[in-house]
Amino acid sequence: MSSSVKMGLIMTVLAGMAGSLATAQDLRGPETFSSITNPSERSRALFVEAGRVIQHPRCLNCHPVGDRPTQGNDGHPHSPLVVRSADDKGAIGSRCTTCHQNANYEPSGVPGHPLWHVAPKSMAWQTKSLAQICQQIKDPRRNGGKTLAAIHEHMANDSLVGWAWMPGGNREPAPGTQAQFGALIAAWIQAGAACPAS
Amino acid sequence: MSITLNINGTRREFDGDPDTPLLWVIREDVGLTGTKYGCGIAQCGACTVHVDGQTLRSCSAPVSAVAGRQVTTIEGLSSRAAKAVQAAWVKLDVVQCGYCQSGQIMSATALLEKKPKPSDTDIDHAMAGNICRCATYQRIRAAIHAASAQLAG
Do B26 and B64 reside in the same domain of the chain? Predict the structure, then answer.
């Protein structure tokens, strides 16, 4: 076997490994956790798996603690400077829709969705532990008055949440699919909606 | 399929690719070159126009997004706030090289049309997306306050 053929085979194997690493972004389904017989323990494990989506940059960037959203996988401040304003859709003269249209716009790389906005302050996730986020998600005083069923509906079917899996450009999508994420949240609720300790 | 546009009160038909940036249509098809190309990625604000009274970066919007909506470019500004802004810009000699100023005036006008007495913070937030390489920012802020005073008088 010539050295060039060997190198070709090595590159093929390496490419295959890279493909495997990419699929590491898959989510584990609820059935993966069925062997955990204690419902609370199973519920916590399900939420930790769902937390891989919740704490992914595609979700965290628009759940800022302050007034300014972040961007990128490193969560750098949104450029240009934008602020949430009273309706979470930007300041006068610099609304979200000044730049973000109804769909991702590949010629400029600017992402878009008809409902583009940042999450209300009470739903801030940045800098918080998964346990804190879990308690917050369940708290009607901080989750927009939602029941657990409404939380599931939001996570599983809201189209702006769904943007996280279709972010366009070179943005990394959230792990798995929205359907898989919704199934995890449903199973978490069914098992008691327990929160992780940390 | 043709897209019907309204630019500065004039109805126009566009027969090209619906994904074409609005900026190209304004400049190349309609021939209104006051709206500038700066960065092409919604980072500098030179291409700012108004759509139904709100600012929009025309480099980052497909022409199909404004079908049936009212587009206003720098050439079509005519509101009371716009006239106050233009007068203040001249009075304070805001412009240096001038390339960004169409976008600056579009954003300043949109601000004053919604908030005739803006604070410095309102101005900073409204204008943050409009970059000026000549750094005329202090004169821009002063001119917006001057236009506001004129509107109040």
Answer: yes
